[in-house]
Amino acid sequence: MSVPVRCGWCSADPLYQAYHDHEWGIPSHDRQHLFELLCLEGQQAGLSWITVLKKRQRYREQFFNFDPAQVAELSDAELAEKCQDAGLIRHLGKLTAIRDNARAWIQQEQAGVQMSEWLWQFVDGQPILNAWSDYREAPTQTPASQAMSKALKKKGFRFVGATTCYAFMQAVGMVNDHTTDCHCYPQSQ
Fold first, then answer.
1. Active-site residue, 41 included
2. Which of 119, 115, 71 is nearest to 96 (CA)?
3. Is 117 a residue of the active site?
4. Is residue 135 annotated as a catalytic residue, yes or no?
5. 11-22 pLDDT, tens per residue?
């Protein structure tokens, strides 16, 4: 049995491979999934994605499976307590950003904004399919991710810089940056 070719950033770690093969680059419009990945990408700042991925289950346990309504209710004291949990990235600013992002998310929904549609507007509602032969050719940010970052910050979101937004866009399939030799690249399937 031949081993499938994957993007060069994907290690041999089974968790990483499962994420690469079954989630990264696949279009998602699911409200809770989008909120989760927006928050988790912010946790990555300064770290490797595999670090966040290995802690993902604990984040789900501690942050109500990323249900924005429940996360928005967390107190400062509860966040300070979570900062002692070795299963999370122990950075109070990053953990507080999850709660603050939930509050901003809920505020938008209460104003009648459908967040999935709002986020997808930055790619005109359609995934962008790139054709990189090497993952290092992909940009770290684009005009679309810069616009998303600026708009999110204006609405009160935190840890949502243009690079974080581009990683989010890749993760939820707004942008498909699988390399052309990868078994997940659409034309290779």
1. yes
2. 71
3. no
4. no
5. 999 999 999 999
Measured CA to CA, the distance from residue 115 to residue 118 in angstroms comes to 5
- Classify 1 as helix, strand or coil: coil
What single-letter DSSP state applies at residue 130? -
Q: What would the pLDDT profile of 33-56 be if each residue is shown by its tens digit?
A: 999 999 999 999 889 999 999 999
Place of tokens 């993952």: 135
CA separation for the pair 77, 188 (Å, rounded): 50
- Which of 49, 59, 120, 166 is labelled catalytic? 49
Residues contacting 99, CB < 8 A, separation 6+: 71, 72, 74, 79
Q: Using one digit for the tens of pLDDT, what is the confidence trace for 42-91?
A: 999 889 999 999 999 999 999 999 999 999 999 999 999 999 999 999 99
Is the pLDDT at 189 greater than 80? The verdict is no
Please name the residues in contact with 114: beta carbons below 8 A apart, sequence gap of 6 or more.
none
**Global pTM value:** 0.96
Q: How confident is the model at residue 2 (pLDDT cuts 50, 70, 90)?
A: confident
- 16, 41, 59, 185: which is the annotated catalytic residue? 41
- What's the CA gap between 47 and 72, in Å, rounded? 25
Annotated catalytic residue within 9, 19, 118, 135: 19
